[in-house]
Amino acid sequence: xxxxxxxxxxxxxxxxxxxxxxxxxxxxxxxxxxxxxxxxxxxxxxxxxxxxxxxxxxxxxxxxxxxxxxxx
Length: 72
Ligand SMILES: [Zn+2]
Known about the structure:
The structure is a single chain. This protein is α+β, with helices and mostly antiparallel strands. It has a single domain (about 1-65), classed as Structural Genomics, Unknown Function 30-nov-00 1gh9 Mol_id (Rubredoxin-like). Helices cover about 20% and strands about 30% of the residues. The chain is built from one helix and five strands, in the order βββββα. The protein has one helix at about 45-60; strands at about 1-5, 15, 20-25, 30, 35-40. The chain has a three-stranded antiparallel β-sheet, with helices on one face. A two-stranded antiparallel sheet has the order 3-4. A hairpin with a 6-residue loop joins strand 1 and strand 2. The protein is globular, with a radius of gyration of 11 Å. It starts with a strand and ends in a 12-residue tail after the last helix. The site of zinc ion has 7 residues, from loops.
């Protein structure tokens, strides 16, 4: 399972494996998954990446997320 959530600091959309406790946002904030605002959960990382990209484009209007890769 992957969880899609927002950074508690900058509000950016992120995703990570559900088993992870934290995720470092590109803004520098280490987000605690439990405290973050959870958007949705999906089965695989590819799907999560797609959702994040769409949300990100909708909100910010630019596909900058493609530069980031999830650490496996
Ligand atoms: Zn952030």
